[in-house]
Amino acid sequence: MGRRSKGRPINGWLVVDKGVGITSTQVVNRVKWLTQAQKVGHGGTLDPLATGVLPIAMGEATKTVAYVMDARKGYRFTVRFGESRDTDDAEGEVLASSELRPSDEAIEAALAPFRGEIQQRPPIYAAVKIQGERAYDLARRGEKVELEPRPVRIDRLDFVRRVDADHAEFEMECGKGTYVRALARDLGEVLGCHAHVSKLRRTAVGGFTLEHAVSLNALEGVVQEDSLPQVLVSVATALAGIPALAVTEPQALRLRAGQPIRVSPGLFGGEQPSAGGTVLITQGGDVVAIGRFDDGEVSPLRVFNLKGGHAARA
């Protein structure tokens, strides 16, 4: 017999509104301790300085983490002009300073080159690997870190308001791998005044928004009231942008056994899948599998064991 996992078999996404000064790993550990869930992971790291949406995968939802990591993200952040810092945020050491402060018109004009597909150099304090080691580990040891620019996508970048002479607030929607800290650094260079991020709040990760989010303090109360299922978000929410296919129970059994099924492209709801594209398969409202559609056939890639909803009690 296989070894039984310790903890409660909870399946679904918990969207935490992360507070400032705590790491994403600490949030995961706290959630696991509070809920006693068998399996917990997160869908996209937030720096300790940052607050906001941190999706936490529980149970079968951990199989969809990669799709959440690839999802578009939304941020609201404040840039502090006049100082560059080694971490490109308020937690770092000051590298250079300037008395120059850009006008609102200069800020607005400087944003255009940062929209769309751009090349961005990650901060040296980043999780990017260099010959097997994280860049931030090398930087903390005082070693020289050189990172090459890489392509990222910024779908929306808006100048919201001028907080005061030193600070301005922005909103951004972007693709995977985009660093807000790097954007602030580069904006300061373009404006000739140096800059870094002083405040950062993530407002969305794919289909997960602040409307879904609960704080760790609120979560403690939810657990004490035994009402966790009321705040969980379904596994399917992480896969909302994928073409969907509803199948029969015999087809679901075949897919869960690792076998392909034949389907007509016209049966997909919403966007039609491309050849070799990823599809979401459901049956009776439950997620059955993530599959690949090719030449009229769907083959399972990841299979889920969800019945009767997204939360199960031990």
How would you describe what is shown here?
It is built from seven helices and 18 strands. The protein is of the alpha+beta class. It has three domains: 90 residues, Pseudouridine synthase, CATH 3.30.2350.10; 133 residues, Pseudouridine synthase (2-Layer Sandwich), CATH 3.30.2350; 62 residues, PUA domain (Archaeosine Trna-guanine Transglycosylase, Chain: A, domain 4, Roll), CATH 2.30.130.10. Strands 1, 2, 3, 4, 7, 10, 11, 12 and 13 form a nine-stranded mixed sheet that branches. The protein has a five-stranded mixed sheet with strand order 14-16-17-18-15, covered by helices on one side. The protein has a two-stranded antiparallel sheet with strand order 5-6. Helix 1 packs parallel to helix 6. The longest helix is centred in the first third of the chain and has 12 residues.
Low-confidence stretches: 308-314
Q: What does the average pLDDT come to?
A: 88
CATH class group of the largest domain: Alpha Beta
Q: Bin the strand percentage.
A: 25-35%
Q: Distance between the terminal alpha carbons, to the nearest Å?
A: 19 Å
The count of β-strands is 18
User: What is the gyration radius calculated from CA atoms?
Assistant: 22 Å
Instruction: Quickly give the structural class.
Output: alpha+beta
Share of helix among residues?
10-25%
Count of runs of 4 or more consecutive helical residues: 7
CATH architecture of the largest domain: 2-Layer Sandwich
What would you call the shape?
globular
CATH superfamily of the largest domain: Pseudouridine synthase
Note the quaternary state here: single chain
Order of helices and strands: EHEEHEEEHEEEHEEHEEHEHEEEE
Number of domains: 3
The biggest beta sheet is recorded as: 9 strands, mixed
CATH topology of the largest domain: Pseudouridine synthase
Domain tRNA pseudouridylate synthase B C-terminal: 181-239
Catalytic activity: uridine(55) in tRNA = pseudouridine(55) in tRNA
Function: Responsible for synthesis of pseudouridine from uracil-55 in the psi GC loop of transfer RNAs.
Keywords: Isomerase, tRNA processing
